User: What shape does this take?
Amino acid sequence: MDPFMQAAIEEARQGLAEGGIPIGSVIVHDGRIIGRGHNRRVQQGSAIRHGEMDAFENAGRQPARVYREAVLYTTLSPCAMCSGAILLYGIPRVVIGENRTFLGEEALLRERGVQLEVLQDAECIRLMEEFIAAKPELWNEDIGE
Assistant: This one.
């Protein structure tokens, strides 16, 4: 398996272990992880700390060029908020662990020229299916339902 998707999955597992939602993300530039994160909405009482947003926050301020040359890995299809950040910072490529349990704004990203690769990774699917079955109310809150 791709070591960067593996790192995103490790982030998702860490989020689950902390009592949160198992979604992880890493941002890669020049073959190196510059930001990693996982959904921390529960842990931090945050309205915006999805996995991708946490990875952006942990990457810190970067020159615009760095984001325009980066690849974002995420275990789950990006929601509207995270897709907006991907577009804002000009991330050209996103590798998605799975989109079976939730289909985010992939059409918008493609329409705006972002290259997407959807893996349908069994571990990403299992993590989300088990979480949604165990805590549907928390999942619905996270995606704004």
Notes: Helices lie at 3-17, 41-44, 51-59, 64-68, 80-88, 106-111, 122-134, 136-142.
